[in-house]
Design goal:
The structure holds 2 protein chains of 2 kinds. Chain A is mainly beta. Chain A has helices at about 1-5, 10-25, 60-65, 310-325, 330-340; strands at about 40-55, 75-90, 95-105, 110-125, 130-135, 170-175, 185-195, 210-220, 220-230, 235-245, 250-265, 275-290, 295-305, 350-360, 370-375, 385-390, 395-405, 420-430. Chain B contains 4 helices and 13 strands. The chains are: A mainly beta, B alpha+beta. At the A-B interface, helix 2, strand 2, strand 6, strand 7 and strand 10 of A face strand 1, strand 2, strand 6, strand 12 and strand 13 of B.
Chain lengths: ~425, ~240
């Protein structure tokens, strides 16, 4: 002990230690009273996004999107978003909402849109039972980029899987039980989704009250869901998912769904469209791995049972090529109509691979998280590569830069998209 | 002969007299730190080498030895996030994402020196066995070994205040023997209801030089909760349980 006292310490370290000690002493006592639950709460974020698009004038979706419009090589778009969410409480009931408003401007014009993402009243007669009615965004499935069992939700954007999405008007309940033992939890969620000309019009065919349900089990440390949607506005479907930690830093997950009598329009290069009616099975297998140096890897294989094979997609791209090279208005209109449907989905192909690597606190900078994301169409070998820089070191402010690079041969999924690259700068402030 | 028998009797008695029941001490530490089922508010302050701070506030509910839920109340960017722990399983619910994802004990949901195992800490005796217990002048030194490979730290060295039976410091080691971090408890405070325990926990790590994290408690009190809230389906509604 005396020897340690006698040892000479470098004076900067002594000062640093002293300063640290002072900091620790100065930490004011924590009083939780300011965080008391309030009958009404409001929060949200404001976001500004600047995008620069490099357009690909030879691509099928450029030709369809810019038909009868001034031709461009680039496009710059500014988008402002305001998202407000809040809660009002009374007794055992809660009303909560999430509102979204976007204003966007580019060289083609300006647009404004406002929508109610969620607004629902929930009552909890007992801790194990919740009953809800209103507009709700239910998220089913364990996949990160895709969710084949997302039966009652709008499709997820694999480029922004964590983005809040607009829900559907519905009534649902949630019954939870914890029996204990190997079966730690059972939860049952029945859902009713009405569709008419004025309600949930984009869910499917009007004139149906669609019934769906999900059964969740936590069995021997594995999350298992069974999901079902009855025939109505959409074809009947059922499926399941699972998720489990193999080790504390290695998680595996999977989803499988089967859609009965799914109608798929298929075109040939001459524009002859046939409707194929068949059962479609989609599935996904994925993993998430965290290294000791705080790098998170996510990998997923997705089999899109409702998607198009490489040859089917090529026929569509040839149709677009023929329509524009012959300047045939009827063919162009047919191609545009197909592009607004299933050929124009973000991922219309049949086999995809998703990979994401993100490094926490990179280069010794706390809250700096660069990432690299790749989405590959495994059949036609086209791909999208997205390097990303994210900084969240300033309280409530999130800054993100992303560069989307799309590559592939002519007549392939990512080569025929409207853009060949996109630079995106985004600042989001939470309040 | 008589003297010889007396000597043997003394030698046989000595270890018994000084044997310490480490497991019992550890169980007392658990109960002195918190009731088995409780609610509390915690503030996490993460301090960077340049003095910049990030503050998070969590509302925590625990039931039994190994079920715990923590809800983020601040900052605004994290508000509404909920973490759930059931034994070795941990999930994070993000309101924007609308569903729960599995997380690991060594990650940190706040970007803190405290990892998820520290933030979602369950009873020490639920995760660790006492390998050795040593009596020192004012403290007991407990050497703890993780019960399974799923636990965040392979070994702990816990110094326990002899009088209060409360931890003074805990050194956390990886299986390789590497010191991951040291936890230091201070500011003994009377929370009422017979709970008198440290109100502040500080940590730093040789792996994150210059960084420091502080956890402060407030409103810690015994409360019982229904089993159903410690489930994934309940996480979006956890906040409604706050009084």
């Amino acid at each position: 002990m005396s020897r340690r006292r006698g040892r000479r310490q470098p004076w900067p370290l002594v000062l640093l230690a002293a300063a640290a000690a002072v900091c620790a002493q100065e930490e004011p006592p924590f009083d939780a009273s300011q965080f008391e639950k309030k009958p009404f709460e409001l929060g949200g974020y404001a976001q500004l996004k600047q995008e620069h698009f490099e357009l690909d004038r030879s691509a099928a979706f450029y030709k369809l999107g810019f038909y009868n419009q001034p031709q461009r090589d680039t496009l710059d778009r500014t988008t402002g978003t305001l998202q407000l969410y809040g809660k009002a409480r009374h007794g055992s009931g809660t009303f909560d909402f999430r509102l979204n408003a976007d204003a966007q401007h580019d060289q083609l014009g300006s647009e404004r849109a406002a929508s109610i993402f969620e607004a629902a009243y929930s009552a909890r007669p007992t801790p194990g039972l919740t009953v809800e009615a209103g507009k709700r965004s239910l998220k089913w499935g364990k996949g990160y980029a895709w969710n084949p069992i997302g039966f009652v939700e709008r499709p997820k954007d694999p480029n922004d899987p964590q983005l809040a999405r607009e829900g559907f008007v519905m009534a649902n309940a949630d019954w939870i039980s914890s029996p204990g033992g190997a079966l730690q939890t059972i939860a049952f969620t029945p859902v009713l989704v009405p569709v008419s000309e004025s309600v949930n019009r984009d869910f499917g065919e009007a004139g149906h009250v669609n019934l769906a349900a999900k059964l969740y089990l936590l069995y021997r440390d594995t999350d298992i869901d069974f999901a079902w949607l009855g025939e109505g506005s959409r074809p009947a479907r059922f499926g399941m998912d699972f998720s489990r930690n193999v080790t504390s830093n290695f998680e595996i997950h999977g989803e499988w769904a089967r859609i009965r009598d799914f109608q798929r329009p298929i075109t040939d290069s001459a524009g002859r469209v046939t409707i194929e009616v068949a059962n479609a099975a989609s599935y996904l297998l994925g993993m998430r791995y965290l290294t000791a140096s705080d790098t998170t890897y996510i990998a997923e294989y997705y089999r899109n049972g409702t998607g198009y094979s490489e040859e089917e997609a090529r026929q569509f791209y040839q149709l677009v090529d023929t329509a524009f090279s012959t300047n045939d208005p009827a063919l162009i209109q047919r191609a545009q109509s197909l592009a607004q449907g299933s050929y124009g989905r973000p991922n219309p192909g049949r086999d995809y691979f998703y990979f994401r690597a993100q490094q926490k606190d990179a280069l010794g900078i706390v809250y700096f998280a660069p990432a690299l994301t790749a989405i590959v169409n495994l059949q036609d070998r086209s791909y999208q590569l997205t390097p990303e820089l994210l900084y969240s070191g300033i309280t409530n402010l999130e800054l993100r830069v992303r560069l989307f690079l799309l590559q592939g041969d002519t007549g392939t999924d990512f080569a025929e998209k409207q853009v060949s690259s996109k630079l995106e700068l985004q600042a989001r402030y939470y309040f | 002969m008589k003297r010889f028998l007396w000597l043997i009797a003394c030698l046989a008695w000595l270890p018994v007299a000084h044997a310490i029941d480490g497991t019992q001490i550890l169980q007392k530490v658990d109960r002195n730190l918190e009731p088995e089922s409780y609610e509390s508010y915690r503030q996490l302050t993460d301090i960077q080498p340049d003095g910049a701070k990030k503050i998070s506030v969590l509302y925590t509910m625990k039931k039994g030895r190994d079920r715990l839920v923590a809800l983020f109340l601040a900052p605004a960017s994290d508000k509404g996030r909920v973490t759930l722990r059931l034994g070795d399983n941990m999930w994070l619910y993000i309101p924007d994402v609308g569903r729960s994802i599995r997380i690991t004990s060594l990650q940190s949901v706040t970007g803190s020196v405290f990892n998820n195992a520290d933030i979602l800490r369950i009873d020490y005796s639920a995760e660790y066995d006492v390998e050795a217990a040593e009596e020192q002048k004012d403290a007991y030194l407990l050497s703890l070994k993780a019960k399974s490979g799923e636990v965040a730290y392979d070994k702990l060295k816990m110094r326990v205040d002899k009088q209060a039976i409360l931890p003074l410091s805990i050194e956390c080691y990886a299986a390789s023997g590497l010191l991951i971090k040291t936890l230091r408890f201070r500011d003994i405070k009377d929370f009422g209801g017979g709970i008198r325990r440290p109100a502040t926990l500080e940590t730093d790590s040789p792996l994150q030089k210059g960084y420091k994290s502080i956890m402060q408690w407030s409103g810690l009190k015994a409360r019982t909760f229904p089993d159903e809230i410690f489930t994934l389906n309940y996480l979006p509604r956890v906040e409604e349980l706050r009084k």
